């Protein structure tokens, strides 16, 4: 496994290395400390499995930099690790393609479970930030569905044909590895598609995405029967 750690403070990079050292038997860490070295590491290491990136390193342009990296290297899951936790900024980096956000104040407690979720194809947000974002994004709804954010057909139609295939296999409970084998694509590509699916469906984890997939399938079946 190869992980990129990008932060302008050496102590932060050292702490992340220590926290992530038990994630796999063999981990190759590469490091960056500003926007230029971040881009250079992506260019030199095309086999990255994960990138943890500080949002405020010299030369960074916030969500714009994150979006550019995700466009150029869509198969690499990118998690923002930042001392900033403004809900609007978090929302921007998620929309730009980040698959997780970890506040530096909670690194010691959150890194391992967050990274495990991301590598499994999920999206990580601390509970307090998730609540804030959901409150900001959720419009008033009927009393019988107080916090429902349905996977409307219009949203699903935004998915590419390949993403729809991944979506359907997720609904059947297949793992990333099984989806990759069935579609004859890499596991990294599957993870990238799943991150996009999460963004389109406005969900934050695999369980919620699967629930939405099954709900949509049931609704479509009901429409055919009626």
List keywords for this structure.
226 residues, alpha/beta, Rossmann fold, Arc Repressor Mutant, subunit A, 2 domains, five-stranded parallel beta sheet, 11 helices, 54% helix
Please sum up the structure shown.
By secondary structure, the protein is α/β, with parallel strands linked by helices. It has helices at 10-20, 35-44, 63-72, 87-95, 107-119, 127-137, 153-156, 161-171, 176-183, 187-201, 206-225; strands spanning 2-6, 28-32, 50-53, 78-82, 100-103. α3 runs parallel beside α4 and α8 (161-171) crosses α10 (187-201).
Please provide a written account of the structure.
With 226 residues, the protein is α/β, with parallel strands linked by helices. It folds into two domains: 2-135, Response regulator (Rossmann fold, 3-Layer(aba) Sandwich), CATH 3.40.50; 142-225, Arc Repressor Mutant, subunit A (Orthogonal Bundle). It has eleven helices and five strands. The chain has helices at 10-20, 35-44, 63-72, 87-95, 107-119, 127-137, 153-156, 161-171, 176-183, 187-201, 206-225; strands spanning 2-6, 28-32, 50-53, 78-82, 100-103. The protein has a five-stranded parallel beta sheet with strand order 2-1-3-4-5, sandwiched between helices. Helix 3 runs parallel beside helix 4 and helix 8 (161-171) packs across helix 11. The longest helix is centred in the C-terminal third of the chain and has 20 residues, at 206-225. The protein is globular, with a radius of gyration of 18 Å. The model is unreliable at 136-154 (pLDDT under 50).
């Amino acid at each position: 496994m190869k992980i990129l750690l990008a932060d302008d403070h050496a102590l932060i990079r050292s702490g992340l290395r220590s926290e992530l050292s038990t994630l796999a038997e063999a981990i190759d860490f590469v490091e960056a400390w500003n926007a230029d070295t971040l881009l250079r590491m992506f260019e030199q290491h095309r086999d990255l499995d994960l990138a943890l990136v500080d949002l405020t390193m010299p030369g960074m342009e916030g969500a714009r930099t994150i979006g550019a990296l995700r466009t150029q290297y869509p198969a690499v899951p990118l998690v923002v690790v930042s001392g900033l936790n403004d809900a609007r900024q978090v929302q921007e980096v998620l929309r730009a393609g980040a698959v997780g956000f970890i506040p530096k104040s909670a690194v010691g407690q959150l890194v391992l479970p967050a990274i495990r979720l991301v590598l499994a194809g999920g999206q990580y947000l601390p509970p307090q930030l998730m609540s804030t974002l959901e409150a900001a994004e959720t419009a008033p709804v009927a009393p019988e569905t107080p916090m429902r954010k349905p996977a409307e057909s219009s949203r699903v139609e935004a998915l590419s044909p390949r993403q729809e295939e991944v979506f359907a296999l997720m609904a059947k409970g297949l793992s990333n590895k099984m989806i990759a084998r069935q579609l004859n694509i890499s596991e990294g590509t599957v993870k990238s598609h799943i991150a996009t699916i999460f963004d389109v469906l406005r969900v934050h984890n695999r369980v919620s995405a699967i629930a939405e997939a099954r709900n949509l399938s049931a609704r479509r079946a009901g429409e055919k029967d009626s």
